[in-house]
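Intended use. Records like the one below are meant for learning the mapping from a protein sequence to its folded structure. Do not use them to infer anything beyond what is encoded.
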Amino acid sequence: MAFFKRKVQFNDDFGFGSNPVTKNQRMLNPDGSANIERTGLPWFKFDDTYTRLVTMSWPRFFFVILLAYLVVNTIFAVLYNVVGIENLNGAKGVTLRDQFFDAFFFSAQTISTVGYGHISPQGFVTSVLAAFESMLGLLAFALATGLLYGRFSRPTSKVSFSKKMVIAPYEKGHGLMCRLVNLRRNQLIEVEVQMVMSYNETIDGKHVRRFYPLPLERSKIGILSLNWTLVHPITEESPFFEKSLTELQHAEVEVFVILKAFDDTFSQTIHTRTSYQDEEIEMDARFEKMYYHNEEGKMVMDYSKLDKVTPTA
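Structure written out for the chain above:
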């Protein structure tokens, strides 16, 4: 059964193909990433290392840096012990464990070029090994500094979307609405948004996934200084016209919201996106107002009300 009872213009080239979703799996995660499990790729690709290090989470990044630091120092500690711990002046370890830690901490001082002087190399082989480690340390710390700079300088979006969409009274009918705000104090200008609806449909006995762009009351604003409530007017041409939540759930509806804006701090264009499934759409509700004027007449934004909705019935 077709979801639309009239002829409409679809957009089936959205990048996800036409295969229907099953078990109400979302196509786009709330954080904007594609909900796709990738197989057949190698576990490690050397030419993709920089991208992974720059884009991974901060806890994971610091764990990788710490792990690499410990592994390198452990390797050099073993090498110093192989060459002979007696070639490290000042190493007082008697047991194998103490000798290993003497070499480990000497390695840590050498690779960071600290050089406290408590332990020093003697002999040609040990000095060459220490010199090589010192050079490796300079390169490694320069690389780590570049990665930190790359992570901090990479333009990212702090636009937050409401957790739910609502269908609320709008003009003489109703509208599908979601809300967004910029959590940073900087300015986003030339902000553009598009909204696309995706759903399963059976055409001539074949299950397909269809994509339909949802026209917005306003799809572009000059500057995002307050919150922005996106409104898709539910007219007779809208796929939400006279549709119940049961019908939306049966079609496994998902709504994509895609934003593009110019960040005046980084002087670069940023992108962010999210999606809403049918269970995240609330009927007969409206968003609470997020801003008000204080006693001095100044506009105040209350970000804690981003997800606050009230019933309209």
